[in-house]
């Protein structure tokens, strides 16, 4: 089963090289890597082209514009999404793809972020929250047919299922992209939250915009989409 690793990137010159180095070391026999540059003004595009990966330019701003471009360019049966500052272990791809091979009803798989450059207490609190609260809500929401939980920067989506939902909602620029996608995907099959499918991710955005503020915005948007059906 071929996999396509899709990495959206905007001004990621400080992080993209390390992410690509580790992505290329995946212990999996058949995969490609696609970097979608969201019109960066730094050396992101130049640095990405030094690696054996495909690089595309997407001028429309927004994470779902880049993910949708990556989806359209991908040739894999499974779409694996990474953020440009994530550090995947060598078995990350293999552990994610195996769910689709074992269960044909699975349309997506996701797992926790480990904010490796944050404080020890925040890493513990965040991991506890994701492994327990996120995983619980993922099961609960699917049982009541209201959606699911998806962490986009650590996610795997069956390519045919992404096609079934008509691709990603490019009306959403950032907040709510994962929730909207999970809600639409859940109508076509099962979304798995694998507690062991952990990926290291930078906490730089949390530090910049607020360790409490951003999680609250995520929660607010999450319930707006699930309950009110808002997508913009």
Work out the count of structural domains: 1
Portion of residues in beta strands equals: 15-25%
Taking all Cα atoms into account, the compactness measure Rg is: 16 Å
Biggest sheet, strands in spatial order?
A: 3-2-1-4-8-6-9
Any chance you could write out the topology, listing elements then pairs?
Layout (H helix, E strand, L loop, with lengths): L2 E7 L6 H8 L7 E7 L6 H5 L5 E4 L5 H11 L4 E5 L3 E2 L4 H11 L3 E5 L2 E3 L4 H24 L10 E5 H6 L12 H9 L4 E4 L5 E3 L2 H6 L3 H16 L4
Description:
The protein has a seven-stranded mixed beta sheet with strand order 3-2-1-4-8-6-9, with helices on both faces. It has a three-stranded mixed beta sheet with strand order 5-10-7. It has 232 residues and is an alpha/beta fold. The chain has a single domain, classed as Spore Coat Polysaccharide Biosynthesis Protein SpsA, Chain A, CATH 3.90.550. The chain contains nine helices and ten strands.
Give the structure's gist in a few sentences.
With 232 residues, the chain is of the alpha/beta class. 41% of the residues lie in helices and 19% in strands. The chain has a 7-stranded mixed beta sheet with strand order 3-2-1-4-8-6-9, with helices on both faces. It has a 3-stranded mixed beta sheet with strand order 5-10-7.
Characteristics of this structure?
seven-stranded mixed β-sheet, 232 residues, single chain, Spore Coat Polysaccharide Biosynthesis Protein SpsA, Chain A, 9 helices, three-stranded mixed β-sheet, alpha/beta
């Amino acid at each position: 089963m071929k996999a396509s690793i899709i990495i959206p990137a905007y001004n990621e010159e400080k992080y993209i090289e390390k992410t690509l180095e580790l992505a290329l070391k995946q212990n999996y026999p058949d995969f490609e890597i696609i970097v979608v540059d969201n019109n960066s003004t730094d050396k992101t595009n130049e640095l990405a082209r030094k690696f054996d990966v495909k690089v595309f330019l997407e001028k429309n701003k927004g994470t779902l514009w880049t993910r949708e471009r990556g989806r359209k360019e991908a040739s894999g049966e499974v779409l694996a999404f990474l953020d440009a500052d994530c550090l995947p272990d060598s078995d990350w791809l293999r552990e994610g793809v195996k769910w689709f091979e074992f269960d044909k009803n699975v349309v997506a798989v996701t797992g926790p972020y480990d904010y490796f450059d944050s404080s020890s207490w925040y890493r513990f609190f965040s991991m506890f929250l994701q492994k327990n609260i996120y995983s619980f809500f993922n099961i609960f929401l699917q049982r009541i047919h209201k959606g699911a939980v998806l962490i986009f920067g650590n996610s795997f989506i069956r390519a045919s299922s992404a096609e079934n939902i008509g691709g990603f909602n490019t009306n959403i620029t950032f907040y709510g992209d994962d929730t909207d996608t999970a809600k639409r995907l859940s109508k076509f099959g099962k979304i798995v939250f694998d507690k062991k499918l952990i990926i290291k991710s930078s906490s730089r955005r949390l530090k910049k915009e607020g360790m409490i503020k951003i999680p609250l915005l995520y929660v607010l948007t999450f319930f707006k989409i699930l309950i009110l059906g808002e997508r913009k």
